[in-house]
Amino acid sequence: MAIGWTSFGQQGKSTELFQRIAHLDSAMFQAYNQRDMSTFKQYFTSDLEWFQDNGGLLHYETVIANFQNIFNRDYVLTRKLVPGTLEVHPIKDYGAIHIGRHTFSHIENGKLEVGEFKFLMIWKNDQGNWKISRVVSYDH
Question: Which residues form the DUF4440 domain (predicted)?
Answer without folding.
Answer: 21-132
